[in-house]
Here is the input.
Amino acid sequence: MDCKKALAETGGDIEKAQEFLRKKGLAAADKRAGRATAEGRIGSYIHDSRIGVLIEVNCETDFVSRGDIFKELVDDLAMQVAACPQVQYISIDDVPEEVVKKETDLEMQREDLLSKPEQIRAKIVEGRVKKRLGEFALFEQPFIKNDKVTISDWVKQTIATTGENMKVKRFARYNLGEGLEKKSQDFAAEVAAQTVAKPPPSAPPKEDKLAETTESVEK
Here is the structure.
């Protein structure tokens, strides 16, 4: 019924009908945003034994949390975090105020904006800062399996499909050796140290001469 209605609303244009259904699904997801999400899954992804990700995604019921659709979403999100090393937050709203202020101050001092009126400059800076902060937010990233949609849209589409509210609670990324100082060897210096001239060995005692001296005394 939804497909027929979408085609009727868009004059039979399939692409427009798909977009119509997508927007309808996103709207339905927004309506469910207030529902409690006490169930869910903790997913993981390991890449080449060098990058590891843990992520917690919540939903409303245990039934949905055990379903393939939700499992796939969690796995995809874990993979997305692994593929985006710059991502530190779930959404732009999670970015700390001090980071927002720092980025705003930097943009306000850009040379290409100094000559512009204050009101126009503020509007340009707002757009630039939002774009910059979006680089740090998981929800703003293009989905690695379909770069035409963002992670935020992908989560909302899954919400529309399952009929349950879902939330990404938290995630953590681990990089092999991160925070550890690796010992670096200066092989040139090591070789140089080994080839430093050693002091010449002490001369052996002159036994022959000593013997001659002793013989002379005895005579």
Q: What stands out?
A: Strands lie at 39-47, 51-59, 142-143, 146-150, 167-175.
